[in-house]
Structure formats: C-alpha cells, structure tokens
User: Which sequence fits this backbone?
C-alpha cells in the first residue's frame, strides 16, 4: 500500500453550489478505507466546508462499488487495542463532520462496513437500483463490529432490531429492500443517480433540520414503540437475539456479544455511552485470536481469487487459458445437478447425461428446483432463471458431447466404472476436451491409467450440496498439464467456488483428513461414549455438525466405501473400528434411507439418537469422558493427517490446507484452519498431546513427521 | 421447362434434423407451451449437430396458433436456448405448411448470400391455444384504460352483456368461406366420390406404417426424448398418436364428424390435434463442406401454389407439386419417395386422384398432361400425419427430415414432401440425397 494516494478523493464544485466529492482510489481496484483514504476524505470535506460557495455535498464513487469497507491491512498495522479504539474514535469523529453541510451519499455498487458507515453519516442516502448495489455490515464475519457508529446510525434509521439483524448476520441488503426498511432514502436508476443526489442536496438545504442531532428519524411503528422504547421490551428483544446467536455461535464468536452490548447500551443509555462501548469493544476485538483467524481466512480467500492454480513459471510458459463455455456432466444425481446449476447460472452450457430418462428426469427436476428456490427467495429474477435454463440440455447417450470443453463425471465411486466412462468420453470428444473426475477419493492417475490423453485428465472434487458448499478441490495428477489446471481453476471460480489445487493421492487432501476424524468419533462411540455427547462436544468446539451426524448425512455406505479405499492406501492408521460394519448389515445408510445413528421422520428431519443402535453395536453408552478429550482426539486426528498430507506434498501451501478444511469440511473458522490453529497453539504443545494419545491409543496418533520437525525447530506453518 | 435448381456446390444443405415425439392434445405436453417445445427441440438440434452456434446467423421459426405472450416465437427460441443473442430471427406462418416456409425462407436468405447457416422449424401446442375475449369486451377493456372517472367506467361496463364475457376459442373456420377444414375435406370426398372404406383403409395404412417404423427404429435418430416440465418424471420417447395394433374393422364403428348424416370423414381417418415441435439446421453447401459436415441431404427446389378455398380447398399438393418438379428439372417418376401431408385421408386420396388425372391437369393446372400416377410403394412409407399427428407448424420439417433420412438409408435419390394448408394453399419441396 502506498502511504500517500494522491487523487483518491477529488472535489468538483458545480456552478449550482453542490460539491461532488469523488471517491476513486487510483491504486486499488475498489475503494477501501485506508489511513491515506481517510485523510484525503477529511481534507476534501474540510475544503468544501470552508468554501462558502458550496451549499452541500454529494459523495459518489467512480468505481463499480461505493466503498467496500475498511482495508484489512489498516487493522493489522494497529499496535494495540488502545490504538484500535483511538482509530475507531478518530474515524467516528470524522464521520460526524460529514453533515456540517447537507450531504448525500450516492451509492452505486456495494457500500459495506466502513463504506456504509460513511453513507449513513451523510444527511441522506440515494442508491441505484442496480442488482449489484447493496449495503451491509460484514464486520461480524471478520470477528469485528462496525467501529464508527454505524450500528447506532443504522438503529436511528431502522430501529434496534433492524440494526441487530444487520450487525449479527453481516448480510448484504439490496437497494430496494434497503429502501423499504428505511436504511436508504431513495432508490433510482443508476443513470440518474448523481442527478437525483444533487437534487436532494438542494432540497435538504431548503429544509430546516439540525445536522448535529442524533436519534431516531422518521416515523416509528408500533413494534418499535413496544419493543424498543421501554426497558422491558428491550429486555425481550435482546434476550431473544442472544439466545438465537448462542444457538449458532456457541460462544465462539466474541463479536456477537459485543454487537449486542453496543446496541443494548444505545437503547438504555443513549449515543455517547454506546459510542464509548463501541470503540472500546472494537479495539478489543481487533486483537482477539478469533478475529485474527477470520481475517487470515479473508486474506486467503482474497489471495485464492487471484491464484491461477499453477506456478508463475507455468503461467509464463503458456498462452492465456481459454475460458470454458461448454461442459458435459456424466451422472445427473444431486452432485451432477448441483454442478450443472452453478455452471448454467453463470452462462456455461451444460449437457447432462444419465443412464436413462428416469435418471435424467431426476437431474432436471433437481436443477429446476434449485432455480425455483432462488426465484422464490428473490435471489434471482424469473427471467434470469429462464435464461440460465436455456443453457441446459440432457441426453441418455453421448450425443451432443462433441463440443464439450470439459466433461465432468459424477458416477459411482468405483475405479473400473470411472475408467469405462473415461474411455467412452474420450471416444466422442475432441482432443482438447478435459476429463474431470468428481471422485472424492480415487487417485486421478489410476482413473487416467488407460487414458489416450492423460494430460487432459484432472480431478474436480465438489462438495455436496454443490450449490451451497463454497469449496472446489482441484486435483492435479502428475501428468495433468498446467493449462488444463488453469482452465479448470478458472471454471471453478466462475462457478462461484473458492478453489484450491492439490496434488494427486488417495483422498487428496479433504477426504484424507476427514477419514481419521470420523474414525476417531467411531472409536469414541465403540468405547461407549454416547453419540449425542460426541456430536455436541464437537459442535461446541466449533464444527457445524458433529462427526456422527456428518456420517449420517454423507451416508454410512458411502463413508464405509471411501473408508475402505483410504484404509487400503494408508494402512492401519485409517482403519475404522470393527463393529461399524454391522450397521451396513442392518441396512443403515444414514439420512438418505432414514436409518442411521439418528432417527428421522417421514420428511427426513433428524430426530434423536436411534436407541437401537447401541445394542446393535454391542455398546453401552455410559462411558463418561471430558468434552475436551472428545474434542481433542477427533480434531487432532484431523489436524495430524492434514500435516501429513502437507508433508507428503499434497498441498501447495498451508493456506490451502486451512481453506480446504474450513470451506470443504467445516473446520471451525474462528480457529483459522488446522495449520493456523497449530500455529496459535504452538507446534510443541500439539505434538505433546499427540504423543500422549499415541501412548494410549497406538499408531493412529503417531505424529506427522513434519510436525515433529516443526516442533523441534520451533517454527510455524504461516 | 427450365430448371432453376442451384448448381452442385451451391445447394442448400440440411445438416441436422430433430423433432420431439408428437403427442395428442392435452396429454404428455399439457404443461408445455409451443415455445417450450420449440426451445427444447432447437437446443437439441444445435447440440446434436455439434457445430459452433456462432456459425448460425438466422432462425426462422413458426407457430400456427401464435401465443399472445411471444408473437415472435423465432426470437424467443434463440433467446431461450443459450444461443448467441446476435442470431437474428423472424417468425413465419403458412398454416399447415409453416415449417416448409421457414425452410425455404432461410434457403432464400442463404442463396442470396445473406446467411450461411440457419435454424428452421415450427412448433404448435393444441394444449396451449390462445383463447381470447369477445370483440365487445376487448373494446370495453381498451376504453376502460382511457376512462378517467367512475361514471365513465360504469358507462363502459354497462355496454357488456353476459355473452360478451365468454372466452372465444381460436377460429377453426375459414374466414372467407365459413367452412372448417374437416368440412372442406368432407366436401371434397363427397364430390370426388371417395368412399368411407377407402378413407379408413388409408388411415389404417398410415398407422400400420408408422407403427412399423417405430418398431424398426426408423425414427430413433430423428426423434428426441422429451422430459416434460415441471416434474420431468414422465419421459415421452415415441409419438403417442400411433395405433400400434389397430384393426381396420374398428374404423367403421366411428361416426362421421363433419356431416353426421351423409358424411364419411371421421376422427379416425383425420389427423388428430397434436402438440409437438421440429427443427432443421440448414447451411450453404459450401460452408457445410468447409466444416467437414456430412449433410442429411439437400433442398433441390420448392414451390407454393394457391387455389380458391371455396372449391376443393385441400388440393394444394396437386397444385404445388408440378411447379416444384419443373423447377427441379425432373418429373414425378424420377422421385424415389413421395411424402404427402395427411390432413385427412380424403384429402390425400383426392390429391392422388388429381395427380393421375389428365382432365384435372388440363382444367385446374393449365397443363396438358397429368402430373403422374403415384406409386403406392413410394408414398408415405413410414406413415403420415394421420398416425404421427399434426402439430401444424412442426409437420413440414418432420416430413423433410424423414424423407431425407429414408433416402439416405436407401443410398440416395430424390424425394418430394408436399402439403395442403388452410386458405387453399399448397407447398412442395424436392429433396435430394447424393448417392
């Protein structure tokens, strides 16, 4: 980052006395709040306030977004919580001065975090009706809170409950919705945005209002009166919000209680007290390990967006990879349908093949439903859904495969079947066509063993449900060409995925590290620890679902099948405890057939643990152990295998290992991923825990060589 | 007569053809509009052709009963199938000969050098017909949008009687003669002396041949499978109009429809109301060759003709065929296959009679000699519209596709596809497949 950004904020004074303050950081593709940017904005505002000819101000961006938030580097540069608090206060004070003259924020594109705080600090907000225009406070996702009175100003506009929702969910609200909530004042077509904002400046100039006044604006409705204007009502409101947040966050996200506290204080004690709490809590949050971890994820994701998936030398050695416009899917199940959906949505043509019409029909119905849901939730227009639908066709043979640039197979996880499909596909496609296997465990080199063009064979491991899961794990076999990797990475990004590229090997990265984790849960169960105890302990540690529930959701049969493959490849340390095989003999496949570790109702909704499971496994679920032992045994099994995979050269970086674990498998994000977690705990400490378990439970806890080495030299992964 | 048939190398190639299975009104496609059917078939056409869609510059498509939602179906087809949005498009209508028109309009554009490749075809849904409101109600509604005060609005509404509120189904009668298609066929049968038995036998022949063709897999390449929305769980893979083991005796049991007392035209010896869509990909011969494509065959010549609908309205084939043959520089006996649209058995039989009649040629066609006797072995070898169904705008492209593929199966040759159409129109195209 440059220390001085000349020209990031430019002032244009119009003949009618309205000054346009243009936001346009010349060194960044988007406007973010940096020290330099903030300084320039202050200077510009001082200039317009000092100029008697200026009657009012419009803040507008020349970028495709307004301001996307504070620059994360600004936060990392702060030396202490006190400095962070001071920085927040400084920015808040600067924003307070935005209303000295009538000011209007003309918001086109995103106004997030600090960007929304700036807009809210203006006298009025006019937003464009562009679908990309949106406002929100994503700070909570980084373990922070908006530190420049944003929550308070939002509360003035939309009430405490509305501000709580924005603050706690971090969601982005589209222009039209923001208008109906009262968060913005006016929505107009982008082409006339500036004109409308200027007109509003003049209108504001004529009306008499106190620019310094804080507090609720506009009409207040009955709910607000009942809930927010009296202490009892507020108690109800905050109690509800707290319990909802706890149910999701399990106390692992310190930003959540901080946001609640800020708004609770505002409701009870007013602006000054709340602003004080806000600045203090902001300062503290910046220095929590949770926020540091979440910021590291944010940085990693940002870096991955720019990562072509191959080395700089490889990039230099080849022409720019051609974007992929047409794919074909072999296998139209949930996976194939999901991949089709995320592709069509971005205008990629999809040819969906299944064995028979019934299979194709189920695939089409699945894709249709995904679109219908988007339309119903107003996340997509009917017209856009129809347009996307035009990119789909289906077949029961290989007709129409001739022009496919990538064929993705999502057939049953069986080597001979995948080889057969590969041979069939190679027979009907062009010599440039990429064959991507959506295998979750089989080495790509084995699938490509008889390929005519192994340099065109790759793994694209999507996670189910594809339309929701953010990760794509691309598996590069030894013979896969860098161009093929780069094209598939670009396709994955277009499909909206965060893409990591890993090297070939059984289970690659994600499946390989998941196996010992799930096994350990099974070991705990076989020792007599109750199923719900195990799951609850790991959810409390931060996993989205417990391991046993996860087995039910993935499918016990699928888990057992993949388990066999990983055990074959890695030997004893991957072997699950024996009695688990009895489940399959008892026709238990998990959620999909309504028979698993848990019971399910007719609609497939999970109920409690199935009590008949214990006698079936010959277990009495009475063994009492500490939650921490459950958490450590499972998580360390996971982390240790992640380090092994890294040591074996499967991962390109620890960063990819963290992202894969968090986005593909649900590793607790606030811990930053397995590698960052080891860094924050200390390699030595992790090593000694593993050694202790190794003594008690044997070889499956044998520490990864890389961890031993790291501990010996006191190093870190990052 | 001089042929104006394009020289070898400059012909119109038909490089791919596909259609949906045809389905009786309100059966398999009851939840699909003609537009949905059209998009489904065109998407499949382009993919099966395996050509780069950027080769295509034009889409000419038709629908006989046009939708009020999408008056230019051709453009909707382009926009709803992920095709490049710069493919220009216009819709055509020539009643039952609509997709002949789509084909020849595209051929003209290609011959003029305006385009090199085009999508053509047609779709109709008898399940999704444009039911409208009465003229009185329609006028009142327009007036209401202009009325400013309540009394004005009430005055306009008071013009309406209960009868004006009834929906109006699409007209089935000829606007100028007041006769329906079936009534015209009935009139022709009566005046030409075509017996009920002959009609029933011809209809039975159509079903037998269509059933045999399906059984032998003849249609496998040209008919796609459709999984009708919204549930996609009931695939339709064959025309559901074909009677697979009908008995000739059963035809006699039906009551005549258009003249209950003296008539001979029944539901069984007429084509049914049908839903379906078809499409062809046409290209200049030169471009097809450059791309290394092996066309199904070529369009050699075409002709349209018209006669007074108050007379024998459905004689279009007899009037258009000799023109097309002349333009192709051939005579009827040069043809290996003749495909005549079967609107009604009576209409086919009347036309066949006229083909062989010197008198008809002299009195109606201004020709000294008969067109020629049609060899039954060459006629509608895989059945026709009576058995396969007749989604109006889709029929022409269906016929062209079937004739070309059959000629190819036989190692090449010449074929004719001809149809009658409402208003006394006729269409004929001569097709050829190189041996």
Assistant:
């Amino acid at each position: 980052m440059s220390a001085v950004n000349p020209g990031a904020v430019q002032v244009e004074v119009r003949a009618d006395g309205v000054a346009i303050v243009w936001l346009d950081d010349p060194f960044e593709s988007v406007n973010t709040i940096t020290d330099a940017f903030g300084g320039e904005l202050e200077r510009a505002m001082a200039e317009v306030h000092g100029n008697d000819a200026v009657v009012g101000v419009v803040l507008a961006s020349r970028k495709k977004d307004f301001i996307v938030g504070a620059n994360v580097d600004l936060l990392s540069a702060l030396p202490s919580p006190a400095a962070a608090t001071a920085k927040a206060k400084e920015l808040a004070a600067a924003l307070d001065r935005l209303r000295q003259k009538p000011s209007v924020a003309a918001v086109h594109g995103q106004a997030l975090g600090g960007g929304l705080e700036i807009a809210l600090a203006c006298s009025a907000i006019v937003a464009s009706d562009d679908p990309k225009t949106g406002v929100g406070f994503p700070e909570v996702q980084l373990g922070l809170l908006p530190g420049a009175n944003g929550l308070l100003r939002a509360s003035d506009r939309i009430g405490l409950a509305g501000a709580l929702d924005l603050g706690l969910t971090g969601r982005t609200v589209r222009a039209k919705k923001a208008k109906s909530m009262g968060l913005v004042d006016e929505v107009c077509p982008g082409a006339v945005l500036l004109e409308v904002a200027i007109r509003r400046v003049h209108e504001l100039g004529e009306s008499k209002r106190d620019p310094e006044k804080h507090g609720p604006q506009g009409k207040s409705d009955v709910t607000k009166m009942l809930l927010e204007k009296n202490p009892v009502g507020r108690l109800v409101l905050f109690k509800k919000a707290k319990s909802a947040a706890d149910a999701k966050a399990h106390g692992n996200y310190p930003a959540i209680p901080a946001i609640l506290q800020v708004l609770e204080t505002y409701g009870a004690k007013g602006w000054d007290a709340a602003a004080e709490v806000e600045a203090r809590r902001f300062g503290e949050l910046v220095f929590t390990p949770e926020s540091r971890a979440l910021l590291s994820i944010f940085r990693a994701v940002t870096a991955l967006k720019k990562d072509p998936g191959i080395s700089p030398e490889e990039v230099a050695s080849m022409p720019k990879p051609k974007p992929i416009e047409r794919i074909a899917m072999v296998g139209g199940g949930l996976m194939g349908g999901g991949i089709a959906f995320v592709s069509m949505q971005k205008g990629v043509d999809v040819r969906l093949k299944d064995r028979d019409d019934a299979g194709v029909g189920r695939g089409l119905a699945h894709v249709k439903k995904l679109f219908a849901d988007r339309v119903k939730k107003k996340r997509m227009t009917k017209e856009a859904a129809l347009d996307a639908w035009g990119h789909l066709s289906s077949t029961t043979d290989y007709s129409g495969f001739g022009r496919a640039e990538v064929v993705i197979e999502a057939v049953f996880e069986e080597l001979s079947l995948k080889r057969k499909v590969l041979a069939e596909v190679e027979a009907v496609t062009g010599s440039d066509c990429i064959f991507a296997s959506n295998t979750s465990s089989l080495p790509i080199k084995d699938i490509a063993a008889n390929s005519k063009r192994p340099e065109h064979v790759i793994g694209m491991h999507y996670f189910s449900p594809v339309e929701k899961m953010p990760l794509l794990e691309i598996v590069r076999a030894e013979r896969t060409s860098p161009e093929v990797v780069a094209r598939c990475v670009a396709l994955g990004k277009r499909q909206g995925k965060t893409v990591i590229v890993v090297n070939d090997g059984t289970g690659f990265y994600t499946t390989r590290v998941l196996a010992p984790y799930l096994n350990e849960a099974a070991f705990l169960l076989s020792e007599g620890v109750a199923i719900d105890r195990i799951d609850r302990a790991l959810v409390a540690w931060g996993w989205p679902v417990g391991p046993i529930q996860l087995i039910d959701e993935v499918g016990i049969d699928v888990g057992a099948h993949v388990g066999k493959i990983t055990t074959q490849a890695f030997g004893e340390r991957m072997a699950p405890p024996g009695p688990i095989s009895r489940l399959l003999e008892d026709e238990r496949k998990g959620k999909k057939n309504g028979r698993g570790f848990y019971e399910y109702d007719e609609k497939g909704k999970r109920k409690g643990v199935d009590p008949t499971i214990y006698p079936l496994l010959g277990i009495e679920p009475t063994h009492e152990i500490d939650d921490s032992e459950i958490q450590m045994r499972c998580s360390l099994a996971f982390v240790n295998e992640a380090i092994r995979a890294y040591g074996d050269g499967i991962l390109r970086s620890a960063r990819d290992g963290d992202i894969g674990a968090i986005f593909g498998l649900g590793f607790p994000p606030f811990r930053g991923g397995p590698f960052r977690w080891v860094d924050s705990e200390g390699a030595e400490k992790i090593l000694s825990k593993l050694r202790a378990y190794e003594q008690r439970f044997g070889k499956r806890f044998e520490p990864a060589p890389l961890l031993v080495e790291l501990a010996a030299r006191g190093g870190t992964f990052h | 007569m001089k042929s104006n048939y394009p020289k070898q190398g400059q012909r119109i190639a038909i490089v791919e053809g596909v259609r949906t299975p045809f389905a009786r009104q309100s059966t398999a496609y009851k939840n699909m509009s003609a537009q949905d059917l059209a998009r489904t078939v065109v998407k499949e056409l382009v993919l099966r052709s395996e050509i780069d869609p950027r080769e295509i510059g034009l889409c000419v498509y038709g629908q006989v009963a046009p939708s009020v939602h999408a008056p230019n179906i051709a453009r909707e087809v382009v926009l709803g199938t992920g095709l490049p949005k710069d493919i220009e498009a216009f819709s055509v209508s020539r009643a039952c000969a609509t997709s002949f028109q789509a084909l020849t309009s595209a051929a003209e554009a290609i011959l003029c050098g305006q385009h090199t490749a085009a999508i053509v075809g047609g779709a109709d849904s008898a399940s999704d017909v444009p039911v409208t409101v009465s003229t009185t109600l329609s006028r009142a509604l327009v007036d209401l949008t202009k009325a400013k005060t309540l009394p004005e609005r009430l005055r306009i509404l008071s013009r309406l009687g209960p009868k004006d509120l009834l929906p109006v189904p699409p007209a089935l009668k000829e606007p100028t003669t007041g006769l329906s298609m079936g009534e015209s066929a009935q009139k022709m049968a009566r005046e030409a002396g075509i017996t009920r038995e002959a009609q029933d036998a011809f209809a039975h022949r159509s079903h037998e041949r269509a059933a045999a063709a399906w059984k032998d897999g003849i249609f496998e390449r040209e008919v796609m499978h459709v999984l009708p929305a919204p549930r996609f769980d009931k695939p339709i893979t064959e025309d559901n109009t074909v009677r697979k083991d009908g008995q000739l005796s059963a035809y006699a049991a039906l009551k005549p429809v258009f003249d209950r007392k003296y008539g001979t035209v029944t539901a069984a010896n007429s084509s049914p109301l049908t839903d379906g869509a078809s499409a062809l990909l046409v290209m200049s011969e030169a471009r097809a060759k450059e791309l290394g494509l092996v066309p199904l065959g070529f369009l050699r010549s075409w002709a349209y003709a018209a006669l007074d609908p108050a007379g024998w309205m459905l004689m279009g084939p007899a009037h258009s065929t000799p023109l097309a043959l002349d333009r192709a520089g051939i005579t009827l006996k040069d043809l290996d296959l003749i495909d005549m649209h079967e609107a009604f058995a009576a209409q086919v039989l009347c036309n066949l009679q006229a083909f062989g009649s010197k008198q008809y040629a002299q009195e109606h066609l201004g020709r000294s000699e008969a067109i020629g006797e049609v060899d039954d072995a060459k006629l509608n070898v895989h059945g026709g519209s009576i058995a396969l169904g007749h989604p109006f705008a889709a029929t022409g492209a269906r016929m062209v596709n079937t004739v070309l593929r059959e000629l190819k199966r036989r190692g090449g040759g010449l074929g004719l596809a001809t149809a009658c159409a409402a208003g006394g129109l006729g269409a004929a195209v001569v097709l050829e497949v190189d041996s």
The radius of gyration of chain B is 22 Å.
